[in-house]
Design a protein that fits this description.
The chain is of the alpha/beta class. It has eight helices and 15 strands. It has a six-stranded parallel β-sheet. It has a five-stranded parallel β-sheet with strand order 7-6-8-9-12. A two-stranded antiparallel ribbon has the order 2-3. The longest helix is centred in the N-terminal third of the chain and has 12 residues. Bound molecules: magnesium ion. Magnesium ion (MG) binds next to loops.
């Protein structure tokens, strides 16, 4: 078993660390969460998903045998919503799937006259008309919020690799000349939101994940300790080519115990 003795709380990546898309819970994930619960160890699940609301993510995890409360899940939509609400300009073109709209309460979804264009995992909902409308909103002065910059993701055994929100964000930036504000991992603000939610200083918290850029570099920049899991998006090459120096490296979260 491995752990970082100084860690008093943890942030945990979802896809590739606790679950594998289309396959369910990763080996050892249920036992790891059980150990956290048994010790009352504080944690938040930190995912870049913008396909589902927190409640839907919690339900899907329950179906996979993983007990997590919706309130213990932090998604980019949480930070996007806060950014929009705090600005006082509430009109937003929401290029996000219907499933994650509950996490945008207080934001006024519009097709025209938007103050913001928010880009998430609209998937097959991205089409020329919607992208054109977003492009025109940006040229008319709307600000661009990206829930993340992932260029592609693995949609499971049937579909394989597919374009993710980041590819569409890049297209809109290229056409409009506007630069997106990214509110998902690895943005420092995302980690600060998760840490504030956890109520612990960054130095007392370990981020556990399988993505070198999003999980390790982003969390380290926010001041967290880091634990690399050799999960589905891990590659030795990515680690060797990056400045990331994880405190702990494990093959699965099943090896971790606080
Ligand atoms: Mg991951």
């Amino acid at each position: 078993m491995s752990w970082i003795p100084e860690a008093a709380g943890c942030l945990i990546d979802l896809d590739g660390t606790l679950v594998e898309v289309g396959r369910g819970a990763m080996p050892g994930a249920a036992g790891f969460l059980d150990r956290l619960h048994a010790r009352g160890f504080p944690y938040r699940i930190c995912s870049n998903t913008s396909r589902r609301s927190r409640a839907e993510v919690a339900r899907a995890l329950a179906d996979d045998g993983l007990r997590v409360r919706a309130g213990d899940i932090v998604l980019p939509a949480s930070l996007a919503r806060r950014t929009i609400v705090v600005s006082g300009s509430l009109r937003a073109m929401l290029l996000v799937p219907e499933g994650c709209l509950p996490d945008f309460s207080g934001v006024e979804g519009v097709d025209e006259g938007a103050d913001w264009v928010v880009v998430g995992d609209l998937g097959r909902g991205f089409n020329a008309d919607r992208l054109d409308a977003a492009f025109r909103a940006l040229t008319a002065g709307a600000r661009l919020l990206a829930l993340h910059r992932n260029p592609f993701w693995n949609a499971g055994p049937d579909r394989g690799l597919v374009l993710d929100a980041g590819a569409y964000v890049a297209a809109l930036e290229h056409a409009s000349g506007e630069r997106a504000t990214v509110v998902g991992k690895p943005a420092r603000e995302f980690y600060e939101l998760a840490l504030a939610d956890l109520g612990l200083p960054a130095a007392d918290v370990v981020m556990i994940g399988d993505n070198v850029e999003n999980d390790l570099i982003g969390a380290a920049a926010a001041g967290c300790r880091t634990c690399l899991v050799r999960g589905t998006s891990f590659s030795e090459e990515a680690l060797a080519a990056s400045p990331a120096r994880p405190d702990v490296v494990v093959d699965s979260v099943g090896e971790l115990t606080p």
